[in-house]
């Protein structure tokens, strides 16, 4: 074989290998809720680049009445390869038979924090008495329609014995990050999981609420039934739970799973 034919054959081989790589690339559909989104936005593109895949990200809360909520999306027949959401909401999907058995992977723990408008004085919330006084002194309080907000509305106010005083001035915010309505000045004080507060501009992060009153939310991922790319989904979840990505997980305000 002369030099020209050798080079021509090599070019055909390279083109063929490139075609194989293209054929093997998959679009993985990921439904993820707010608390893990900041970490996912860092780690997802890395995984996609390393595996020659693409990720189609669908955002929605873990629960609630909004049509964008992950359980409501699945109930309407929307397809996903991976769901990432609050652990107990995922457990309900597992009980309903919407998740492939044995595919749940624990990803991170999330604690509740608070923000005020950028430039406003930072109140104290790191002891029980300070948190109680801060809530009573606030003109308005906002919290989410997901796990942290449900806890605040149904348990935290009761535990502090301030439910009657707070409920008239406290409001559950649907669909959008709580910090956005604090940034616009519509609410004085906003509570949500720390990882959902930190990315929002226009607010000052105060810190986490007093640990004795803290509610820790576990985020977990799993593979829905009828997922089109279950093997790729397993690899993605394993990567998101791996030891080497924990610094990135923690940088977004989440805590590693013990």
TrEMBL record:
<dbReference type="InterPro" id="IPR050682">
    <property type="entry name" value="ModA/WtpA"/>
</dbReference>
<protein>
    <submittedName>
        <fullName>Molybdate transport system substrate-binding protein</fullName>
    </submittedName>
</protein>
<dbReference type="GO" id="GO:0030973">
    <property type="term" value="F:molybdate ion binding"/>
</dbReference>
<dbReference type="GO" id="GO:0015689">
    <property type="term" value="P:molybdate ion transport"/>
</dbReference>
<dbReference type="Pfam" id="PF13531">
    <property type="entry name" value="SBP_bac_11"/>
</dbReference>
């Amino acid at each position: 074989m002369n030099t020209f034919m050798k080079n021509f054959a090599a070019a055909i081989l390279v083109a063929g290998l490139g075609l194989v790589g293209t054929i093997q690339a998959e679009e993985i559909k990921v439904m993820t809720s707010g608390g893990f989104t900041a970490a996912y936005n860092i780690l997802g593109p890395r995984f996609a680049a390393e595996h020659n895949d693409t990720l189609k990200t669908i955002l929605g809360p873990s629960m609630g009445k909004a049509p964008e909520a992950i359980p409501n999306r699945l109930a309407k027949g929307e397809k996903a390869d991976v769901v990432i959401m609050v652990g107990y909401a995922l457990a309900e999907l597992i009980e309903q038979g919407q998740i492939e058995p044995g595919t749940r992977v624990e990803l991170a723990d999330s604690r509740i924090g608070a923000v005020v408008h950028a430039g406003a004085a930072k109140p104290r919330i790191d002891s029980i008495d300070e948190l109680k006084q801060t809530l009573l002194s606030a003109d308005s309080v906002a919290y989410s329609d997901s796990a942290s907000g449900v806890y605040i509305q149904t348990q935290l106010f009761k535990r502090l014995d301030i439910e009657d005083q707070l409920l008239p001035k406290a409001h559950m915010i649907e669909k959008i990050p709580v910090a956005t309505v604090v940034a616009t000045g519509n609410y004085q004080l906003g509570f949500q999981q720390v990882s959902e507060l930190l990315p929002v501009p226009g607010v000052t992060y105060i810190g986490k609420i007093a640990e004795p009153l803290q509610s820790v939310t576990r985020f977990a991922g799993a593979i829905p039934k009828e997922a089109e790319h279950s093997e790729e989904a397993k690899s993605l979840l394993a990567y998101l739970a791996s030891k080497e990505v924990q610094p990135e997980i923690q940088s977004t305000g989440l805590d590693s799973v013990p």
